[in-house]
Write a structure and sequence with these properties.
The protein is an alpha/beta fold. The chain folds into two domains: 258 residues, Carbon-nitrogen hydrolase (Nitrilase/N-carbamoyl-D-aminoacid amidohydrolase); 201 residues, HUPs (Rossmann fold), CATH 3.40.50. It is 37% helix and 18% strand. The radius of gyration is 25 Å and the shape is elongated. The N and C termini lie far apart (57 Å).
C-alpha cells in the first residue's frame, strides 16, 4: 500500500490552522492513491505545548479538532498526534498520544510510554506515561506505533540507556513487523545523522521497516528539521523528506521503495537553514511582520541581518546604525554597505547626544571617579533604548545580535546589546559565526570583506579589541564547548586541550558569574546539543567551584 508522511509545521495552540494542514495534506495524499498518512507528534495541538495541557479548554479544543479531522478525511487512514485524557495514578491528567483516524472516527489510540526529562524536555511534568502499548493491523502488517522517545532506548545502540523498558522491542516481541514513529525531534548539528543511525540499528536488529515522520518548523527556542525517513529491513533509507521545509513523501509498504527528497547537506548549510527557519517562525508565530537589527559594522550583526532578510524578506528588515564616540568610520560604512547589499532599509542614529546627556546627568554623582566599564555600558544601553523605541513605533521585533561565546562569558550588556525579542545567534560560537558568514558569502557576497577581516571590537573605548578581555576565540570556544556541552572540569579541559589551567579557570569563572545575565536574555535558537536557555538549568546564587 502507498503510505504518505505529512511533514508539517504546526503552531502550538493553533487548532484551526493545524487541523487545516492535516486535512489538506490528507486529501492530497488520498488523491495520490495513499491509503494512510502519518503526521508528527502532537500535530493537532503543536509541540511542545508545555503547561497549556493543564488547561481543560486546551484539551477539549484538541479533542474537537481531532474529531473534525476524522470527519473530513474519510477514505484514508490518518495517524496524528494529540493529547488524550489519562487514566493514571501518576497525578497527570493527560497522555501524549497518537490516534488512527478511519471512516470518520477514532479507530485506535496509542500513548507515549517514555517521557524525556533531559535537556529541553520536561514531559514527565505534563504527561502520564502509557501503562501498555498495543499493535494495530493495517494492509497485512501488524503496526507498532510509537511516539518519538519510545524509539530512543535501543540497547544495541546506546551504551547507557535512560529507561528500563524498550517499547519498540516489546511491540516487536508481541508480533509487530512494521515500526511507525511520529516525532517532534528538535534539530542540533549532528542530530540528523544520529537519528538516522539509531533508526537503522532498530531496523537491522529486528529485521523490520522503520518509518519516522518528524515535525518541521520553529516553536520558541526549538527548531525542528523534518528530514522524515523510511528505512528497509537492512537499515537502508528508501524514502526521505526535505530538511527545514514542509513536505509530503510517499513510499510503498510492500516493495519498500519511495521518494528521496534532497536534504540540506553540511553543518554550515544546515545550521544556517535552521536559524532562518527558527527566526521566521518565531517572528511570524509571535504576530510580527518586521524585524529590526542594530548594525555595528561587525560580523555578528551582519550575520543576524542576513538571516533576518532570508527569514522574512529584505523589505521587512530595518537595519539601524548607531555610531558613538568611539565608532570607526569604517564600521559605519560597513553597516551601510551591508544594508545596501541586502536591500534592507537603513537608518543612522547617532548616540552621541544621548551619551553626553547621560554623562551630564551623572556628572556630580560620579565626581572624582575614573571612567570605566560604566561609561561603556551607557553607550550600549543608549543603543538599546533607541532600538526599543523603533520597535514600539513600528511594531517590529528587535533581534539581538550577541553570539554564544559572548553570552557564555558575559561579554555583553544587560538592557543594552542584549535587548530584543529573539537572540538569533546566541547558540552560535564566534568561530561558527565566521564559518556561517563565509557560507553566506559563498552563495552571494553580501557581507563586506572588511567586516570579515577586521579584529572583533565592541568599539566602546579607544582602540578596543575583544582580545583585550578575552582569549582568542578558537581557544575560548573550545573551552566553552567542553565546559557547557560536556560538563568537563577545568583540569580535564586543560589536560585534553593543552591549555593553561589558569586560563581555563578564568574562563569558567566568567561563565559562572554571567548566569544572571543569561537568565534575563531573550530566547535563543538552539542549534547545539546544549544551548543556553531552559535546557540548561543552573542556579544564579551559587558558590560551587568547578
Amino acid at each position: 500500500m502507498k503510505i504518505a508522511l505529512g511533514q508539517i509545521n504546526p503552531t502550538v495552540g493553533d487548532f484551526s490552522g493545524n487541523a487545516a494542514k492535516i486535512i489538506d495534506f490528507s486529501r492530497r495524499a488520498q488523491s495520490a492513491g495513499a491509503g494512510m498518512i502519518l503526521f508528527p507528534e502532537l500535530s493537532v495541538c503543536g509541540y511542545p505545548p508545555r503547561d497549556l495541557v493543564e488547561r481543560p479548554s486546551f484539551v477539549t479544543r484538541n479533542r474537537e479538532s481531532a474529531e473534525r479531522i476524522a470527519a473530513q478525511t474519510k477514505g484514508i487512514g490518518v495517524i496524528c498526534g494529540l493529547v488524550t485524557p489519562a487514566d493514571s495514578d501518576a497525578g497527570k491528567s493527560v497522555n501524549n498520544s497518537a490516534a488512527l483516524l478511519m471512516d470518520g472516527k477514532v479507530a485506535f489510540i496509542q500513548s507515549k510510554m517514555l517521557l524525556p526529562t533531559y535537556d529541553v524536555f520536561d514531559e514527565m511534568r505534563n504527561f502520564a506515561p502509557a501503562k501498555k502499548q498495543e499493535l494495530f493491523p493495517f494492509c497485512g502488517n501488524r503496526m507498532a506505533l510509537t511516539i518519538c522517545e519510545d524509539a530512543w532506548n535501543d540497547k544495541q545502540f546506546w551504551v547507557k540507556r535512560l529507561y528500563t523498558v524498550d517499547p519498540v522491542e516489546a511491540l516487536i516481541q508481541a508480533g509487530g513487523n512494521f515500526v511507525l514513529n511520529i516525532s517532534a525531534s528538535p534539530f542540533w548539528i549532528g542530530k540528523r545523522e544520529l537519528r538516522r543511525d539509531m533508526l537503522a540499528s532498530i531496523a537491522r536488529q529486528h529485521k523490520v521497516p522503520v518509518v519516522l515522520v518528524n515535525q518541521v518548523g520553529g516553536n520558541d527556542s526549538l527548531v525542528f528539521d523534518g528530514s522524515s525517513l523510511v528505512l528497509n529491513r537492512e537499515g537502508n533509507v528508501i524514502a526521505q523528506g526535505l530538511s527545514f521545509e514542509e513536505d509530503l513523501i510517499y513510499f510503498d509498504s510492500q516493495s519498500l521503495t519511495g521518494e528521496m527528497h534532497q536534504e540540506v547537506a553540511g553543518d554550515e548549510a544546515s545550521a544556517y537553514s535552521a536559524l532562518v527557519l527558527g527566526t521566521r517562525d518565531y517572528i511570524q508565530k509571535c504576530g510580527f511582520q518586521k524585524a529590526i537589527v542594530g548594525l555595528s559594522g561587525g560580523i555578528d550583526s551582519a550575520l543576524t541581518a542576513v538571516i533576518a532578510a532570508d527569514a522574512v524578506g529584505a523589505e521587512n528588515v530595518i537595519g539601524v546604525g548607531m555610531p558613538g564616540p568611539y565608532s570607526s568610520p569604517g564600521s559605519i560604512e560597513d553597516a551601510r554597505m551591508l544594508a545596501k547589499n541586502l536591500g534592507i532599509r537603513f537608518e543612522l542614529l547617532s548616540i552621541n547626544p544621548a551619551y553626553e546627556a547621560y554623562r551630564q546627568i551623572l556628572h556630580d554623582v560620579f565626581a572624582g571617579l575614573p571612567q570605566d566599564v560604566t561609561e561603556e555600558n551607557i553607550q550600549a544601553r543608549a543603543r538599546g533604548t533607541l532600538l526599543m523605541a523603533l520597535s514600539n513605533k513600528f511594531g517590529a521585533i528587535v533581534l539581538s545580535t550577541g553570539n554564544k561565546s559572548e553570552l557564555g562569558v558575559g561579554y555583553c550588556t544587560l538592557y543594552g546589546d542584549m535587548v530584543g525579542g529573539l537572540a538569533v545567534i546566541s547558540d552560535v560560537p564566534k568561530t561558527l559565526v565566521y564559518r556561517l558568514s563565509a557560507y553566506v558569502n559563498s552563495r552571494r557576497p553580501v557581507i563586506p570583506q572588511s567586516t570579515l577581516e577586521k579584529p572583533p571590537s565592541a568599539e566602546l573605548r579607544p582602540d578596543q579589541k575583544d582580545s583585550d578581555s578575552l582569549p582568542p576565540y578558537e581557544v575560548l570556544d573550545a573551552i566553552l564547548e567542553d565546559y557547557i556541552e560536556d560538563s568537563h572540569s577545568a583540569e580535564q579541559i586543560a589536560a585534553d586541550r593543552k591549555f593553561d589551567i589558569q586560563l581555563v579557570k578564568r574562563v569558567i569563572r566568567m561563565v559562572d558569574r554571567a548566569e544572571y545575565k543569561r537568565q534575563q536574555a531573550a530566547p535563543g535558537l538552539k542549534i547545539s546539543p546544549k544551548a543556553f536557555g531552559y535546557g540548561r538549568r543552573v542556579p544564579i546564587a551559587a558558590k560551587f567551584e568547578t
